[in-house]
Specification:
The chain has 246 residues and is mainly alpha-helical. Helix content is 78%, strand content 0%.
């Protein structure tokens, strides 16, 4: 099991760095297939997200692809929403959580597929700080209750609505995960239902993958990056459908 978790952690870390996701959108389905129940899988996922998002955001900022700016207000909203979302898990049945996860993946796939490709010099739209905070809070509540970082919802919005270039949106999405995942972990610690034994194995292994993922992101075209992100959503969707119905 330990070797399996190390390999899974390295793989998820690579996905996290490359796609700007916390990793939960793919980690949770994998852990379900391996044999964990949904709530343990969500707890392990949150631990992994804290490690990969903090380290990945540091690397992105160092490389200049992360411009914090207005993202801090979305992040603060994500922190509040993430803290609330962790409590939601305790009161919502597993089946409902799985179908919510399914719906979010469908939405993200649809929104990203129909978004235009924006260049790095495209003028991005701006929203009020209050609205950004509300958006972050809403995403945080839904995402952490499902064990995902929220970037699978935020990134398509940044690209499709605010005209962010895909690579900058990916970096901003991972930065958002820092806030939502830390809040989710702190909240879950008060209920004592995080499997740290397995979570830390996956989390430390993911740091190697994050480094590789960010390097790959910087060496691929935006068009191919978007295509691969869509493929990732389809893969996660397929794994979840298999778990629910088969």
């Amino acid at each position: 099991m330990i070797i399996e978790l190390i390999l899974i952690g390295t793989f998820i870390g690579t996905m996290s760095g490359f796609f700007g996701i916390g990793g939960g959108m793919i980690l949770v389905p994998i852990l379900l297939v391996v044999g964990f129940d949904i709530k343990d899988a969500i707890g392990i996922s949150i631990v992994q997200m804290v490690f990969s998002s903090v380290f990945g955001s540091y690397l992105n900022h160092k490389k200049g692809s992360l411009v914090i700016g207005e993202g801090i207000f979305v992040g603060l909203g994500g922190f509040v929403g993430g803290y609330i979302g962790a409590y939601v898990t305790s009161y919502v049945p597993d089946t409902i959580l799985q179908f919510l996860f399914f719906g979010i993946l469908i939405f993200a796939l649809f929104r990203l597929f129909f978004s235009k490709n924006h260049t790095d010099d495209t003028q991005t739209k701006s929203l009020s700080k209050v609205l950004l905070f509300v958006i972050g809070s809403t995403i945080g509540i839904f995402s952490i209750s499902l064990g995902i970082g929220g970037s699978i919802i935020l990134t398509p919005l940044l690209v499709g609505v605010l005209h962010y270039p895909i690579k900058k949106a990916v970096s901003a999405g991972l930065f958002f995960v820092v806030f939502s995942s830390i809040a989710g972990m702190l909240s879950r610690l008060t209920t004592g239902n995080i499997d740290f034994n397995h979570g830390l194995i996956v989390a430390f292994a993911s740091l190697v993958g994050v480094t590789l993922g960010i390097w790959l992101k910087d060496h691929i075209t935006s068009k191919n990056h978007k295509t691969l992100l869509l493929v990732l959503y389809l893969f996660a969707l397929g794994m979840l459908v298999k778990k629910i119905y088969f």
